[in-house]
Structure formats: structure tokens, C-alpha cells
Amino acid sequence: MEWEKLLSKERFYQSGDGEEPGRSDYDTIIRSTLFRRLQDKAQVFPLESDDYVRTRLTHSLEVSAIGKRLGELVYRRLKEAGKDAWFEHNPETEFSDTLLCAGLVHDIGNPPFGHFGEYAVREWFQRYLGGKTDNYARRLYRELFS
Known about the structure:
InterPro entries: dGTPase-like, HD/PDEase_dom, HD_domain. The chain is built from 8 helices and 2 strands; from the N terminus they run αααββααααα. It has 2 domains: about 5-110, Hypothetical protein af1432 (Orthogonal Bundle), CATH 1.10.3210; about 115-145, no CATH class. By secondary structure, it is mostly helical. Helices cover about 65% and strands about 5% of the residues.
């Protein structure tokens, strides 16, 4: 695998303060409006036995923490195996921070009802609008963004 291409230090916007790219990415994500909007969306598990409902923000933070920990473990194992020189010359944080950030953003852009809600909404539109969802969606987007 070509890790130097997958984990590039190049960014569209450089911070200029010498900060590690992974840390800079993390800071950019948690300050973004898109990430903060996850606080207002429920992460619903319809088959959960308890009534605790978390937000997508909380869920994304949990996924992010798991991703970082897995990244640390995988990095160590790949470095110990000695099969790829990239791991000899790059810090663990460069690898694990990428997974940390991926966990934070993995739900951004998903529909507010999750996969089950997405299916239900699609079925409703098919049933009551006769499959004319494309035109309806375009009209809604024009109203919202004009």
C-alpha cells in the first residue's frame, strides 16, 4: 500500500503554524457548523432495549475514539511486522489521527432519520407522489437555496 499517498501532509489550506496536519484537521472539523449540526440529530437504534437515545454528535465522538484506538493498535502491529518502511519513518499519530477524523465526519451529510428513516421517506414519496420524487426534491432545493 502507498501510505504516503493515502496519508498526505498536503492540505488545501495550510495553517502556517507548523501544526501536524491530523491535529489541524481535527480542530477544523470540531469547529465546523456541519459537525455541530450533528448535535440536533438523533442516532436512533430501533431494536435497542433501553430508552437512551444519543445524538449523532455523541455517536460520532464514540466512533472517532474507537477509530483512533484501532489506528494505534494497527499501526503498532504493522510497524512490528516490518513489512512497510512507511511505519518506520512516520509517527503513530499521523496514522491514528486520520481514523480519529474519519470517525468524526462519518455521519455528516446523512439524512436526519438514518437509514431506516431514509427508506420510510422514500417509500412514502413513492406511494403518495407516484414516484415523482425527483421533481419534488428539485423544487424543495430551489426553495431552500434560492
